[in-house]
User: Which sequence fits this backbone?
């Protein structure tokens, strides 16, 4: 559905990403943040799905063209560990939000795995967003605490997850509640990355339930 586009970052440099546009003019927007595999076809498919649901969706390419095969977790880990998360959030993610806001009245951020952590960072650091959604990803407290989050946030966690363990999810939820932040969290009897239909960990029932919750959340906060 979409196409690869370039956009201007806040620092004046150029970022790239995948844009899928709604059929409606001036539709609300969603910035979609990739997993640690890069901007692969499954994330592009998420953008397409958002577009069909009535949103302009833009996934910035945080790896500048590098895409990792699913079997190569070592390479994915190296790529993720070499990413400057704060710069990616402040420049690529914010630049994508600013691009959408040229025509969209409001914009949300939605990230998966590594992108979930970036989405929480964006909820704390990027003033253009009106809402945030994080799937099984959280940043360290050293870079973004629950009290730093400035927008309504929805989080989706898996019961079988070594990346964001149930204990980490509980700790983050407690921190959000203690800080009085608008927050809703959902837990699924599924594995990490259950939204990714290209992988064996995909859980269709959990994914469809989560998608419905995402749609309701975006309708509430973006219109």
Assistant:
């Amino acid at each position: 559905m979409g196409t690869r586009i370039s956009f201007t970052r806040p620092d004046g440099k150029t970022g790239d990403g995948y844009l899928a546009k709604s059929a409606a003019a001036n539709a609300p927007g969603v910035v979609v943040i990739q997993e640690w595999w890069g901007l692969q076809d499954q994330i592009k498919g998420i953008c397409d799905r958002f577009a069909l649901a009535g949103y302009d969706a833009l996934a910035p390419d945080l790896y500048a063209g590098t895409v990792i095969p699913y079997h190569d977790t070592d390479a994915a880990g190296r790529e993720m560990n070499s990413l400057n998360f704060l710069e990616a959030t402040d420049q690529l993610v914010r630049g994508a939000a600013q691009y959408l806001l040229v025509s969209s009245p409001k914009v949300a951020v939605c990230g998966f795995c590594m992108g979930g952590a970036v989405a929480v960072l964006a909820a704390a650091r990027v003033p253009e967003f009106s809402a945030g959604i994080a799937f099984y990803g959280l940043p360290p407290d050293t870079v973004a605490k629950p009290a730093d989050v400035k927008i309504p946030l929805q989080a989706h966690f898996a019961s079988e997850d070594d990346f964001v363990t149930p204990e980490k999810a509980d700790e983050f939820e407690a921190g959000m509640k203690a800080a009085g932040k608008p927050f809703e969290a959902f837990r699924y009897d599924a594995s990490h990355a259950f939204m990714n239909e290209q992988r064996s960990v995909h859980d269709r029932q959990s994914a469809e339930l989560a998608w419905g919750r995402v749609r309701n959340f975006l309708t509430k906060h973006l219109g």
User: Anything to note?
Assistant: The chain has a mean pLDDT of 98. The helical segments are 41-52, 73-82, 85-100, 114-125, 166-178, 204-222. The beta strands are 3-8, 14-20, 29-33, 56-60, 107-112, 131-135, 153-160, 183-191.
